[in-house]
Amino acid sequence: MAISIQTPLTREKVKTLKAGDSCLISGVIYTARDAAHKRLCELLAQGKELPIDIKDSTIYFVGPTPAKPGQAIGSAGPTTSYRMDAYSPDLIAIGQTGMIGKGKRGPEVIEAMKKYGAVYFGAIGGCGALLSKCIKKAEVVAYDDLGAEAIRRLEVEDFPVVVIIDSEGNNLYETGRANYLAQKKRMSNF
Amino acid sequence: MREISAAKITETVKNLCIEANCHLTDDIKNRIKDFHEDENWGQAKEILERIIENYEISDEKNQPVCQDTGVACVFLKIGQDVHVNGDITEAVNEGVRQGYDEGYLRKSVVRDPLDRVNTGDNTPAMLYFEIVPGDKIEVTVAPKGFGSENMSKIAMLRPSDGLQGVKDFVVKTVEEAGPNPCPPVVVGVGIGGTFDKAAYLAKKALLRPVDIPNNEEFYANLEKELLDEINNLGIGPQGFGGKTTALAVNIEKFPTHIAGLPVAVNINCHVTRHRTEVI
């Protein structure tokens, strides 16, 4: 049974989520990928105000295709997250609690997640058409010049994700594979 | 000498960009369905179901299968008895420009790898020319996403590393990539040639339909063996565990130097896209 999550995502709520949990996210999330993360962290380093409220926010690593007439957004699946590893710890330190992407994360991100309380969700990579159906509204709120890489404010409904890394550092990429291989070994012993 | 207009090339490239990005070919779809049938790990089966649902939505709505509509890799096999009226490279780039605009595809190319300003129209294309006998032009557009491209690798092995060295390198590359390239993946392998030729062969291998094995029995068997080995890794769809880590391994090879054994692995995701038209 999938867990329904309403954003903003508080640190208390983050602590209840465990690696492997299927979740459906509803509410406001923000998009940002490489170029936007770089700008956010540069502002942060200069002590300037950020264009979005980071506290309890969830950032979706995505650069969507352009919306066709009548669509809220084009195809919008996750991009590979490790490219944001250089930036995520700084944003987690000032209150970001959720990340949605796909692929591995570095130890510096996982340490920050444990220290401050944040969760890393995975959405299915390569399913941009399917996932776009859960995005009801999209609006550019910063860095319009970046095109697909601009920061967008999304309103999502029952957006399907799986907890890959939880706030204790448990990692579905490790446990999922190990569980499958253990089961396979058991089956071959019969 | 047959005359082909640059405008015809532009139109063909435009249409292929849209078609390739919104509609997967049957060989990939059938392979995904076969693996879905075979997969007995619950979460893995469920993800493959979503992947099928996704390409069905794309077919129905003419919508990109993946938001990373890639850099446009365009392969031209030009018959030596053809004369093109106009600039071929510009004709291809104009086709990409029009296709990515009219097809609502994402523009993902930056003009300089270090200053990283988006060109805004997904040009330039990555162009590969081949001169062949005849009076036709075969145009293939293969949009390539970078989640999987970034996980690709090349090794200059020693001849003494031999077949085992090649196998180990291919499997290790897929294992290290893990969940990053959106498994299930398609693995393109180039063996032989030079440093750059091996990489080109690996990319070219991804153009071959996944249901057509290498035409040499030895390499066809090697493709099968590597696929089995990769699917014993347990990485599974999206890396959450399961059998289906790769849908296919395609190998292309070429003669090489007495001192060398280059091997390149070009990884593609389950959204392996290519469309061809002959003018």
Structure description:
- The complex is a heterodimer of chains A (190) and B (279).
- Chain A has a single domain (3-188), classed as fumarase, CATH 3.20.130.
- Chain A is built from six helices and seven strands, in the order βαβαβαβαβαββα.
- Chain A has helices at residues 11-16, 34-45, 88-93, 107-116, 128-132, 172-188; strands at 3-6, 22-31, 58-60, 98-101, 119-122, 135-142, 151-165.
- Chain A has a five-stranded mixed barrel with strand order 2-3-4-5-7.
- The mean pLDDT of chain A is 96.
- The longest helix of chain B has 20 residues, at 42-61.
- Classes of the chains: A alpha/beta (190), B alpha/beta (279).
- Chains A and B meet through α5 and α6 of A and α3 of B.
Write the layout of secondary structure elements.
The complex is a heterodimer of chains A (190) and B (279).
Chain A: E1 3-6, H1 11-16, E2 22-31, H2 34-45, E3 58-60, H3 88-93, E4 98-101, H4 107-116, E5 119-122, H5 128-132, E6 135-142, E7 151-165, H6 172-188
Parallel strand pairs in A: 1-2, 2-3, 3-4, 4-5
Antiparallel strand pairs in A: 2-7, 5-7, 6-7
Chain B: E1 2-5, H1 6-22, H2 26-38, H3 42-61, E2 71-79, E3 82-85, H4 88-102, E4 126-132, E5 137-144, H5 146-149, E6 153-157, H6 162-177, E7 185-193, H7 195-205, H8 217-230, E8 246-256, E9 261-268, E10 275-278
Parallel strand pairs in B: 1-3, 2-4, 7-8
Antiparallel strand pairs in B: 2-5, 5-10, 6-9, 7-9
Key traits:
heterodimer, A: about 190 residues, alpha/beta, fumarase, 5-stranded mixed beta barrel, 6 helices, 7 strands, about 30% helix, B: about 280 residues, 60s Ribosomal Protein L30, Chain: A, 2 domains, 10 strands, about 40% helix
